[in-house]
Amino acid sequence: MKSDRILKVAVNAPLPRLFDYLPPPAATASPGCRVRVPFGRQRLVGMVIDVADASDLPRQKLRRAHSAIDDRPLLDHDDLWLIRFTSDYYHHPIGEVVAAAVPALLRQGRPLLATRSVLRLTEEGALVDLAALSKRAPRQAEILAHLDGAVSFDALDRTLPGWRRTKAALIDKGWVQVDEIPDDPGGDGGESEAAAGPTLNEDQRQAVDAILAGQGFRTTLLDGVTGSGKTEVYLRVMEETLAAGKQVLILVPEIGLTPQFVERVRRRLGRAPVLFHSSLTDSERLSAWRRARSGDADLVLGTRSAVFVPLAEPGLIVIDEEHDASFKQQEGLRYSARDLAIARGKRLDVPVILGSATPSLDSLSHANRGAYQHLTLESRAGGAMAPLLRLVDLNRHDGEDGLSTPLLTAIDDHVGRGGQVLVFLNRRGFAPTLICSACGHIAECRRCDSRMTVHQAEGSLLCHHCGATRRLDSTCGQCGAACVPLGQGTERVEETLKSRFPQHVITRVDSDSTRLKGTMDRALAMAVSGEARILVGTQMLSKGHHFPRLTLVGVVNADQGLFSTDFRGGERLAQSLIQVAGRAGRERQQGEVIIQTAFVSHPFWHELLAGGYHQVARYTLAERETAGWPPFSRLALIRASAHQRQHTWEFLEAAAEIASAAIAAAAPGGSVRVLGPVSAPMERRAGRYRGQLLLQSRRRQSLHQVLSAIARELEQHACSRRARWSIDVDPIELF
Questions:
Q1: Is-cis flag, bond preceding 25, omega within 30?
Q2: pTM for the complete prediction?
């Protein structure tokens, strides 16, 4: 690269542009290298994205980069393409995309290859008479005697505390030297003998053959009922990919909820996957990133951020539970890891597998149009039978703290016959509301338009939206009468079951009960072993777990999804119910699922019971096509919030005007619609007033043309300084 070329640098700042710099003195920097640059009064680490012969600014006004950090690019052309694509598609500042794609230690300017300090004997030191030295300088003699080859500073700290005070004297005498050597903790246990897999049934064998028959990029939707053996299909394809010397990237919704998946991969493939997720330390994330980049890790398993991990020899991308909302980042850079994985697979020309028992309607629509290969697994592996679903009408049956008499009777029957029961309620805490028994006053959050949730075990009221907490009131602050909890949460259901079935071990699994390290693993171990006879849990228990003894699932408060304000409400309710129902009867005994509802005549239940998830999907897709909702159109949300309601509305009204002008210029003819602005259903959250503007179009290109124009104008608009705002492309939540 010529020294006079201009560096186009991405800096971690909320500004949607690259910044031009002259190369550092006596050094060059290629795309993919890091440089230290002056930025205002700061000195920051930036990533070179491109180089150019000219700049829009006069050369004399360009500042020079201070130094180059890397001799060779950290990111190759494909990695940089993914960063640029993400920035362009989601209309997000490219510097913040780099920050999401690169480990924190590298963003701070740390070296790619970590080193550790070691102390080593020199030739002179090896000739020292230790017996004579020990008489006049025993500490020096002790250290020299301990040096058998290179010994790390950490090891010396453990065995010879205080040795560092003597180090300088030994160096001055030329008896020891300090070296820096590469330090990589390596894998998570290395390789072991791979275990043989089970015999594939006909559906599984055909799926494996169909996937392996393809060459290069192709997206396959592996659509299989719960317990049908999708994981075994993944594993067979992974084996072939690894045997060809290629790497496999596996994305899962939540790493903490899939220990069984991780262990099965480890056991079947004979190698430990390198894990990449938010619970790792910065050093662990860098090590995993580095091993994937070098090709040392041939199997990488992680949550959504792993979609950016560089791969030396990419061969396959697998997205398990592709329908899961966790793959969409909801703050900051609002990207979909599933969608980026598909785009990345196309760029790298490698196959992509999307697996789910309840595929998203977006993926089903692509499959229906032939854009995805659609493979189905219609029966459970090993001859297990599908669970029986039945409804309990809450209008006809009394209950106890949300548990109907038929459900309690079924629980008693199943545990009495040696089975295991899961009571599913996607609402943590003791009760969602605290109400005065006299005047009806409700305990509300002072910072949100929401009620405080009762957490009786902790004696507190907690807002599940902003995290505010205060002491649990026993009497009403308005009239002094007694306050009572209203409604059910997992904590209350657990208490009721313990009083009803005191002879059985009951375990609650939600984000409250598994907050401490190790508690989730212990709870799952009790569930898998069958020691816990009754499980009470939220959606944390509905994903990817296999409980061999589970025979009954009871769903409490299923109706909360029937009347959602979001057009995806029915899709999500069906996915949640089918996923949790799939935990039952995965071995030889047929499972039973009891769903409590106060609306047995609702059309949703007819579709679900008549044809399962795919019947609901067909019905819902037909509705969406008529109404013009995704996947038959494209959406983008412009969200705004401010401490003063007026500032939120000033911004949104300005955004609406800019959008209308952009549509007239870039997408005439009504191809893009502007809906709103409107307040969010929970307008005030964490002390900020929220609102939004919805853009809808049947043409993706038209929508993005308008969004590009809007983003440019809004960045310069005065009202943008008084409100936080974001653009959410392909939002999965409208409110």
A1: no
A2: 0.87
Q: Which residues contact 732 (CB under 8 A, 6 or more apart)?
A: 325, 328, 336, 568
Nearest residue to 339 (alpha-carbon basis) of 323, 316, 358, 350: 323
Q: Look up residue 295 and give its DSSP letter.
A: T
Angle between helices 645-666 and 700-716 (to 10 degrees): 130
- Do 552 and 594 meet the contact criterion of CB atoms below 8 Å apart? yes
Residue 90 DSSP SS3: helix
DSSP three-state, residue 168? helix
Taking the C-alpha atoms of residue 637 and residue 694, their distance in angstroms, rounded to an integer, is 5
Beta bridge partners, 631, equal none
Is residue 302 within 8 Å of residue 276, measured between CB atoms?
A: yes
Question: Which parts of the chain register pLDDT below 50?
Answer: 1-2
- Identify the H or E element spanning 493: helix 490-500
Burial of 142 (0-12, 13-18, 19+ CB in 10 A): middle
C-alpha distances (whole Å) from 219 to each of 110, 242, 600, 623 are 37, 19, 38, 26
Distance CA 222, CA 211 (A): 10
Give residues with Cβ within 8 angstroms of 209, minimum separation 6: none
Strands, DSSP E only, in 474-583?
A: 483-486, 506-509, 534-537, 550-555
Q: DSSP strand E in 321-406: where?
A: 352-356, 373-377, 388-393, 399-400, 403-404
DSSP symbols for 296-342: S-SEEEESGGGGG---SSEEEEEEETTT-GGGB--SSS--BHHHHHH
Contact 556, 488 (CB under 8 A): yes
Average pLDDT of the chain is 89
Residue 194: CB atoms within 10 Å: 15
Question: What is the structure's pLDDT at 384?
Answer: 65
Per-residue H/E/C for 177-234? EEEEEECCCCCCCCECCCCCCCCCCHHHHHHHHHHHHCCCCCEEEEEECCCCCHHHHH
Which residues sit opposite 625 in a β-bridge?
Answer: none
pLDDT at 374: 97
Q: What is the pLDDT of residue 512?
A: 77
Q: What is the pLDDT of residue 1?
A: 42
The SS3 assignment for 388 reads strand
The C-alpha atoms of residue 732 and residue 735 are separated, in whole angstroms, by 9
Which among 66, 105, 81 is positioned nearest to 31, based on CA atoms? Answer: 81
Backbone φ and ψ of 137, nearest 5°: -145, 70
Position 192 scores a pLDDT of: 67
Residues 6 or more apart whose Cβ sits within 8 Å of residue 641: 648, 685, 688, 689, 690, 691, 723, 724, 725
CA distances from 635 to 108, 457, 694, 704 (A): 36, 43, 7, 10
Q: Which two tokens stand for residue 411?
A: 């629980």
